[in-house]
Design goal:
By secondary structure, the protein is mainly alpha-helical. The protein has 2 domains: 1-24 and 111-253, Serine Threonine Protein Phosphatase 5, Tetratricopeptide repeat, CATH 1.25.40.10; 28-106, no CATH class. Helix content is 60%, strand content 0%. The longest helix is centred in the C-terminal third of the chain and has 16 residues, at 231-246. It is elongated, with a radius of gyration of 21 Å.
Length: 253
């Protein structure tokens, strides 16, 4: 998967999504549903053993009991069985139900992980619509990479209707949290008048903030745009940049 800093190029955007599977709460990264973990409880051990021998019906039965009792591990694993049609007919609505039961109790990274897996088609069926759904869930809880990815999906019309206004809105949320890729894409939107009014002052601001995070392409574009500004516009751009910096975000270090 692409490095977050390389999710965009000097013109527009490149690959999707940005970011990678993460560790969530105190348990595994969730990229592997069964295996790689030694369950400490007999019930999950039974479900894992059944899954490994291909007895998905038994795994489903055991996990459903524990999931209904509120066990997060069981809910998460049960969601995968429903999504992949193992031991039951594929049912994305049931998968979504159990993913919600599990991930709503965790940090936004859990929902981000679900989105990535749906987007890539790894461990879950490839489905950009469901990827967008789960990126939105994570984005609405403040995850900057999810906000950026949702902007990309609106920008490219992938899993969502193309909507440059929404793309710019989500880019801005991520950019204001210091995500360099979002700052660059937001600068492009202002530079080219995509989803926002064309404004070279704002383009300068966001390229400058990205350049402060050691992006050479952003620095070159910042300097190019600076030459297009009148002295008054340049002073205003510097003021806006400082204002943004004073809002307190810390660029990722």
């Amino acid at each position: 998967m692409s490095d977050p800093a390389r999710c965009v190029d000097s013109r527009r955007l490149a690959s999707l999504p940005c970011g990678s599977l993460r560790r969530v709460a105190a348990w595994v990264s969730l990229a592997v549903v069964f295996g790689g973990v030694s369950p400490v409880r007999a019930d999950l051990a039974e479900a894992e053993a059944a899954y490994k021998r291909g007895d998905f019906a038994t795994a489903l039965r055991v996990l459903r009991v524990e999931a209904e009792r509120g066990d997060i591990d069981a809910q998460y694993r049960l969601a995968f069985l429903h999504a992949n049609g193992q031991g039951v007919a594929p049912d994305q609505s049931q998968a979504t139900r159990w993913f919600h039961q599990a991930t709503d109790k965790l940090d936004p990274g859990a929902q981000f992980n679900v989105a990535v897996m749906y987007f890539e088609g790894k461990h879950l069926p490839k489905d950009p619509v469901l990827a967008a759904y789960w990126f939105r869930k994570s984005a609405e809880r403040g995850d900057s990479e999810a906000q950026f990815n949702l902007g990309l999906m609106y920008d490219g019309g992938l899993g969502l209707p193309a909507d440059p206004v929404e793309a710019a809105r989500w880019y801005r949320m991520a950019a204001e949290q210091g995500l360099k890729s979002a700052q660059i894409n937001l600068a492009v939107m202002y530079r080219d008048g995509l989803g926002v009014a064309r404004d070279n002052r704002q383009a300068y601001v966001w390229y400058a903030l990205a350049a402060d995070q050691d992006d050479r392409g952003a620095a070159r574009e910042r300097d190019r745009i600076a030459k297009l500004l009148t002295p008054e516009e340049y002073n205003e751009a510097i003021r806006l940049q400082h204002e943004q910096e004073m809002r307190g975000y810390e660029p990722p270090g």
